[in-house]
Design goal:
The protein is mostly helical. 80% of the residues lie in helices and 0% in strands. Helix 2 runs antiparallel to helix 3.
Length: 115
């Protein structure tokens, strides 16, 4: 391996504290994967539309729908990750967990309105 490659590998490695930043909630992972599969289907539909010579305006509408679906999926994944990390770091009791869940849902709603 060339010296430049070794340097690139060293500088691009994630810090050790980020090693466990995966979504641990199986339900959240399933929800996100289902959303991604729907977006994938929409993208295949757009490809078909282009191949079949559909109207650009209709294709553009489908692009907008896919972008919105991906944006909302990204937001959902981010909120799930935040909830997971806050619960792990703060170890809230049941009452605090309920308040945390409500606050994160409200934040997700507010952020969704931005896009």
């Amino acid at each position: 391996m060339a010296p430049a490659s070794k340097k690139l590998l060293k500088t691009s490695a994630a810090p050790a504290e980020c090693d466990n930043t995966v979504l641990q909630d199986a339900g959240a992972r399933t929800e996100i994967l289902n959303r991604l599969r729907r977006a994938e289907g929409q993208l295949r539909g757009i490809q078909r539309m282009v191949e079949e010579g559909e109207d650009c305006l209709k294709i553009g509408q489908q692009f907008a729908a896919v972008r919105k679906a991906l944006d909302s999926t990204y937001l959902r994944m981010t909120v799930c990750f935040m909830e997971q990390e806050l619960e792990q770091k703060l170890a809230p009791d049941d009452t605090q967990k309920a308040g945390l869940a409500t606050m994160l849902k409200d934040m997700e709603t507010l952020l969704a309105r931005m896009g």
